[in-house]
Amino acid sequence: MKLDDVYVPQDLPGRKITDPQRKGLLKFYRYFTEALLMEKFNGYTAEQFKGNAKRAKQEEGTRSHLKTKDLTPDEVREARDRVDNPALQVFYTLTGYSGARMKHLYEMFAAREKGEDLKIEHINGIIRVDVRSISAGTKNEAYFYFPAEMEKAIRTYRNPYGIDYIGKQIAKSGTSDRPVNESSLRKWNVNILLDHMDKDFANAIQGRAPQGVGVQHYFDLAGKAAKYYPEALSELQKGLPIPDWMKKGAWDTPVSKPGPRKGSPQRGGVKKKQA
């Protein structure tokens, strides 16, 4: 479906547009402010255009292009509820908010178990954890980003099982038609990020190496990611509301050493504390 010309913000409210068209408009408005450094377009600011683009109505049936792995917020939330282990619900939640590779999220906590401090920073009302020590090659993590409400959970969490077992347990939360795993959670995360920021900043959040000389050397990727991530939070929270017990770090984790364990769980169970 072709989108009619848009000259002023008033052209957008009430108009039916597809989800890809909306994303394209938002990317265009970011481009002329961040790349072209233009303050106004046809006499209006980018924020005025972006606000009305978000208010435009989504054309019915425009989600028919969804593939099997494109999760909805309801599916993300319901799958987490089916994970029969509070500590793994925390790990699932941290994966969804950060868009991190599960192995690297696991390594972040494993490094703490080996005596390294978690470098948690507060910025723009969110928190980010410096994970440059686990970055290598094209898997170019610098920071994992989270809502500030998850700080206690991050400080309290310990890996209860090996990463292979964790991945298998989380994968059980989905169905054959609607799988929930690292790949589908990362895709869910990045699709939301792309509604609010340029792909280079979304890729930086998910730990992909920047492409192109300009991006590598002239863009403040960490600064831009920290600036725009808060804008995506309200949408991420629709799929991953944070329960009070998780905000408080209120669960028991078995005491054992981390490491490259595979397959089998460690001793002990993990039970949610009663309020």
Automatic annotation (TrEMBL):
Protein name: Integrase
Entry-linked Gene3D superfamilies: Intergrase catalytic core
Domain Integrase SSV1 C-terminal: residue ranges: 72-233
Organism for this UniProt entry: Methanocorpusculum petauri
A Pfam short name: Phage_integr_3
Annotated segments matching region Disordered: 244-275
